[in-house]
Amino acid sequence: MGNWSEARSLTGTPTTAGQHQQRPAMIEKAFVTKRRSSRLDAAVEADDGAFLLRSVESVGGKVSSATTQGALVTGNAAHWEALERQGYRVKLLPATNMLEVGSHRIDTSIGAAPLPYALELSPEELASWRHHLVQLVAPPTAEWTDKLRVAGVDVVEPVGPYGLFVVASTAEVMALPQSFHFVIWAGPFQPAYRLSHNVVPQPGVTHRLGIGVYPPRDGTAVESAVHDAGGLVVCTSESAAHRGLYHRLVAELSDDGLYALAHHPSVRWIEPAADRPGLDGERECQIVAGNLDGAAAPGTAPLPGYDRWLSEVRVDGTGIVIAICDSGVDSNVDDQNHADLRGRQAAFIDYTAGNVVQDRIGHGTHVAGIAVGNAGSEQIEPGPSSFRWGQGVAPGARFVSMNAIEMTPWPPSDHSQLTRDAVGNGAQIINNSWFDGGPGSGYTSSARRYDQLVRDPDPLSPRLESLAIVFSAGNRGPGAHSITAPKENKNTIIVGNSLGFRPAVGDADDIRGVAQSSSRGPATDGRLLPTVVAPGTDVASALSHFRTSVSAAPIIGTGVADPANQGLVLHRYVYLTGTSMAAPHVAGACALLIQWWQARHGVAPSAAMIKAILVNTAEDCAGGRDGRGGQLEAIPNNDQGWGRVNLNNIFRGSPFTTRGPRLVFDQDAPFTEGGSERVVVVRAHHVERPLRVTLVWTDAPGAVQAGAALVNDLDLEVTEVATGRIFKGNWFAGGFSVTGGSFDNLNNVECVYVPDADGEYEVRVIAAHLRADARPPYAAQPVWQDYALVIDNAEQV
């Protein structure tokens, strides 16, 4: 049962051995429900509420409120431990009095803190102010939000775990909800709350800002206000592209204009907007594949023969398309591209109106070569191993070349322009090795947008399509909170930079290590980042024939003489380093995974399933260099996420790996009510090997600059039937799950890895708190959430 007095994390953020935190003496509130056994009929174990009340009172706790799902209980660590011994499930609700938005933390038990005069509402404004915040005693329920609506309040979206952003036509309408028993605080959404923590007023400086508008029909009025304040509207996004929730525009404003817009009644957020994005072979493919020489670490090295391995596992990416959203790919003309890429360009999308039609930077060509290069130049690395230059991860896949980072102005009117172009040209994956904001930007509107685009990459189409969106983590490491924007989203795959093996070239001499420059988590709200890591250090890949600004010289000895032009060398290669090089290794892995899945299931996997399998099969890099002079701790952590991607662990079982067989459940049983649960009873297939369970869900988009981005909170729980031991998602020590602890309140990736598994296990997915519909238009009601579940080393009972 829970060892609450020695638990290591209040928030549910994954921690590792050696990172213990002292729990305060008093945990204010928890949501308590009856834990049911799959072996008994639910009716037998039904709790009539009165029994729960008596149980809470018997241990000294106090029921603050009761719902159909369970009870809100005030207590402390001793009470939670006693209730768990009696068979109850305890979900901690930390800091129910705190509401975070922008750079402000409102302690609702004492009221909002004073604000700067220029960013506080006047009494005259208060009388007609429509935007408000409401803090509830616990996560919102359908009953509570319905009651608010009946009172005339428009519930727009959740803000953090207990808050709501609401709209009321008058102060009188807003007065009624404050008398409801489930409302502990309500107040105006002040102008100060609308400003991102990264918006810093500076006299004489013109600010480039992203502005969100609610209701979206007021977009034109806000644009007019920008002009009235002496500003310039750079671009706007139609509200239809956001399924009607927000209108968004980018504008340039002075300090005075910034203050004026913050007071506009229809502005929801104001944040920095970048004026242009920044830019964060066979050896590395074999590391990703897990084809290594067996030497003891740190000298473990990759082996040649990646093409032979692809033939053995019968995947190469054929039939799959990857969009390379970057600087373009070489000539951007299919039959004139680098030899490694020629003949497989599905399309070229030009965002420069013909001004930049070739890859002059060289970045996109290098990225494309990593993802889909086929070593078509037939050049071999010198040395006894005979690795092939130009070998990409998915050499049978095609690619869409997109020169979006050359776009002027930036950003696009809506990021869905990029994903829509990708899926419109057949892509199932899009690689993004760029950033448009610095580290610690938090949950920005762009992060929110990408959370939507994973499930709905073409919002103008009535059809929902899944898109695996891969981002580089950034190159601002090795410090914490260094993930660049917009990568603090929840639903994409964020990739850090692990070391390759090129000891003769640079620093890459231990494949377990993480590069010093690789950006690290956690996210601003404490979520684990990156998702996984992949080789990104001293990576050799295709060099654009048209590059003028690539930062490194061609690799000596590579290239083929052009027979038509004396002295011209074609099809050369270059070493580059960064998470930009790590991400396309994962994009290529996604292509192989989709092809492999389709051959077995007849349909493509969801983006959540792709992410779940990558996480579940990743290799722990514990013991490698952490980039700060020390060693990496065991997974999960904010240096390596869930580990290094390993394709062998996906495609091959015993005796080639210690993985498999695997059970998968891909978005087949969505939850429509909080408190629901699904139980899968399994038996460990290989005794004394780990049972690995991974849960991933494509969450509803969170509120911009809210304290916590998670909207729909699912929990993973695994019970060992013979012993009654309970393992909770993301409660780890030494790379494996341990008993005790608390449920995760932050992440939409949860894992339980039971070491030395033996016998039967009950795997539970629990809809702890559902706050919104995870499908467009992402309404607060009705609630709905699907998920992907992977159980490795298991057979269903």
Can you lay out the helices and strands and say which pair or pack?
Blueprint: E1 29-34, H1 42-45, H2 50-58, E2 62-66, E3 71-74, H3 77-85, E4 88-92, E5 98-101, E6 104-107, H4 123-128, E7 131-136, H5 142-150, E8 154-159, E9 163-167, H6 171-175, E10 183-188, E11 207-213, H7 219-228, E12 232-237, E13 247-253, H8 255-262, E14 267-272, H9 282-289, H10 306-313, E15 321-325, E16 345-349, H11 363-372, E17 398-402, H12 416-424, E18 429-432, H13 445-455, E19 468-472, E20 493-498, E21 532-535, E22 539-542, E23 560-561, E24 569-570, E25 573-576, H14 579-601, H15 607-616, H16 647-651, E26 662-666, E27 677-684, E28 691-696, E29 713-720, E30 726-733, E31 736-739, E32 749-754, E33 760-769, E34 788-792, E35 794-796
Parallel strand pairs: 15-17, 15-18, 16-17, 18-19, 19-20, 20-21
Antiparallel strand pairs: 1-3, 1-4, 2-3, 5-6, 7-9, 7-10, 8-9, 11-13, 11-14, 12-13, 22-25, 23-24, 26-34, 27-33, 27-35, 28-32, 28-34, 29-30, 29-33, 30-31
Structure, explained:
With 797 residues, the chain is of the alpha+beta class. It folds into four domains: 89 residues, Alpha-Beta Plaits (2-Layer Sandwich), CATH 3.30.70; 97 residues, Alpha-Beta Plaits (2-Layer Sandwich); 66 residues, 2-Layer Sandwich (Alpha-Beta Plaits), CATH 3.30.70.60; 335 residues, Rossmann fold (3-Layer(aba) Sandwich), CATH 3.40.50.200. It is 18% helix and 23% strand. The protein has 16 helices and 35 strands. A seven-stranded parallel beta sheet has the order 16-17-15-18-19-20-21, sandwiched between helices. The protein has a six-stranded antiparallel beta sheet with strand order 31-30-29-33-27-35, with no helix packed on it. The longest helix is centred in the last third of the chain and has 23 residues. The protein starts with 28 loop residues before the first strand and ends with a strand. The N terminus is likely disordered.
